[in-house]
Amino acid sequence: MDLTTLPLDITEWLHPTAWLQLFGTFATIGVLAIIFAETGLLFGCILPGDSLLFTAGILTAVSTVNGQEFQPLSLPWLLVGGPIAAIAGAQLGHLLGARYGRRLFDRPDSRIFKHEWVDKAEYYFNRFGPARAVVLARFIPIVRTFLNPLAGMLGMDSKKFFVWNAVGGIVWTDALFLLGHFLGSEVPDIEKYILPGVAVILVLSVIPIIREVLKGRKADQGPNKNGPEESRPSLSGDSYR
Q: Fewer CB near the terminus (10 Å): N or C of the chain?
């Protein structure tokens, strides 16, 4: 690979094609490694998620994006390896959270870590309950990184976590891979629409979450609105039971 062809502007690395160009022949392995890191390691929150999976799916059907040649990716390998990497990464995050607890998040804010991201993950964990939160978090950038160790820290049973982790991991990865592959096969010049396509995916994925939040707020306005809050887990309170 010619390093002189790599993008020099750091903001360009937010585009998934920059990573795929870097990985070159090992692009499939690189995609799986990023999936694992994004769901299992705290620094993974800065890595591309939905956009990378969608683009990888497209590159199983086309080999040129914006005039650049890419190594064709294997759809079967992605469909099998993607969920495995996502599940394994999340299980690692859950294990780290259970083992190290609050110490895992006891660090100052930086460019790759902010306490507000943990608070956001905790909000979804509390709002939707552990099982639904684990699945829904897959479709929310940053939250899908922090919710896994948060679930471990708050004491979510490892077997229950594995079940819903597997459901979310399979649906998230394979749905985006298949969508990218289908559009890459059927839509001419699909590479021009990668970023708009990712934006549409993000909007569609948060619609159910917005509905649940609105329903929750409506329920909170009822006469017993303070009851559920008292039993919810918190970073500053007791663990989930």
A: C
Each residue's pLDDT, cut to its tens digit, for the chain (241 residues) gives 343 444 434 445 556 777 777 777 788 898 999 999 988 887 777 777 788 888 888 888 887 766 677 778 899 999 999 999 999 999 999 999 888 877 767 766 655 566 776 777 788 788 888 888 899 888 888 888 888 988 888 889 999 999 999 999 999 999 999 988 988 888 776 666 666 766 676 666 666 566 655 665 665 565 554 444 444 444 444 444 3
- At 227, the amino acid letter reads G
Distances (CA, A) of 132 to 32, 34, 128: 24, 24, 6
Rounded to whole angstroms, the Cα distance separating 83 from 174 reads 7
For the whole model, what pTM was predicted? Answer: 0.74
Q: How far apart are CA 69 and CA 23, in angstroms?
A: 13
Both tokens assigned to 232: 């919810």
Ordered by start, the domain boundaries in the chain are 19-208
- Distance between alpha carbon 227 and the CA centroid of its chain, in Å? 32
Cα–Cα distance measured from residue 40 to residue 43, given in angstroms and rounded to the nearest whole number: 9
Chain centroid, CA 210 distance in Å:
18
Is residue 177 a contact partner of residue 59, using CB atoms and an 8 Å limit?
no
66 conformational bin, left if phi > 0, alpha if psi -120 to 50, beta if neither: left
| Residue 222 DSSP one-character state | S
**Coil, strand or helix: which one is 132?**
helix
